[in-house]
Amino acid sequence: MSPRLLRAAIYFRVSSDAQTTENQKPEVEQLVSGRGFQVVSTYEEQMSAVKKRPAYEQMLKDARKGKFHVVITWALDRLNRSMVGTLNDVLELDRIGVQVISVKETWLDTSGPIRNLLLGIFGWVAEQERARLVERTKAGMEQARRRGSRIGRPRARLDEDRLRELRGQGLSVRKIAEAMKVGSSTIQRRLGVGR
Q: Which is catalytic among the residues 2, 15, 33, 111?
């Protein structure tokens, strides 16, 4: 094993406060010990992957700074909630020279041309999934439109009298928007003017 790969980070995550990472630790520690990695950082979170994850973000920052060259996780789904998210995370880490090793997905822990092939397939699958997601989103929006649903944010409700009063005072669109606590574009649309 190259000395470059000896510096490692560990990432543990569970989805809620009611869960614990303790069941992930023995197998990860066994892998670390068996492979001779030097753990330089451990990141641990107890939250859903759909929420902002400060420990994960810090791990990515540290990876970009070259603090370690391997990220070890118990399973790939610990990195991200969705397949596309996981693929993108693995590809991003690989792009910056950080190998991801998963206790549960040993096929990812390969080297040479096989790893390059797997990462190429990962990239293609992620791209296809993104394209399908866009297609499904557009199809869903079109179906909602056909049913008569309005797509997008609900229109802001404005006190038209107050709007005319503020405009009559010579206030700018921005000042009116601030006073009425809405976006400038909402005021522009209602008045039919620019800024």
A: 15
Which bin fits 190, alpha (ψ -120 to 50), beta or left (φ > 0)?
Answer: alpha
Element (H, E) at 34: helix 25-35
Q: Is position 15 annotated as part of the catalytic site?
A: yes
Domain architecture of the chain: domains with CATH: 3-110 (3.40.50.1390), 160-191 (no CATH)
Tokens 């199809």 correspond to what residue?
139
d(CA 101, CA 108): 7
Q: In what order do the strands lie in the sheet with 99-102?
A: 38-46, 7-14, 70-73, 99-102
* Highest mean pLDDT out of 6-15, 62-71, 131-140, 173-182: 62-71
pLDDT in tens, 5-50: 589 999 998 877 777 888 899 999 999 999 899 999 999 988 765 6
Phi/psi region, residue 45 (left: phi>0; alpha: psi -120 to 50; beta: rest), is: beta
